[in-house]
Amino acid sequence: MPSLDQEEMTCATGYQDFGHHQAPNHQRTSVIKCDILIIGAGAAGLAAAAAAHDPGLRVILAEKEDHVGGTTFRSGGCM
Fold it and tell me: Nearest 5°: phi and psi at 20?
């Protein structure tokens, strides 16, 4: 599988600024449509987003924390 740089990952995931987005405190009432929804921006979620990268697909990567990385982030990079 080809590797993606940060610009391509941003395009694939729709994530404009890794690690700096926080969900608002109010409920959203709008509908966002996508072809692929990935829950969790840990190692597996990021890999899934990279694998799903296709110019014709809209991929959304949802993360509950204010940073990407999941368990890998918390463990300092050791799995």
Answer: -125, 15
- Are the CB atoms for 17 and 57 separated by under 8 Å? no
Question: Do the Cβ atoms of 57 and 73 come closer than 8 Å?
Answer: no
Token readout for 27 is 């409920």
Per-residue pLDDT of the chain (79 residues; tens, 9 = 90+): 455 555 665 555 555 555 555 555 656 678 888 999 999 998 899 999 888 887 778 899 988 888 788 777 666 655 5
Q: Which of 16, 8, 11, 21 is nearest to 59 (CA)?
A: 11
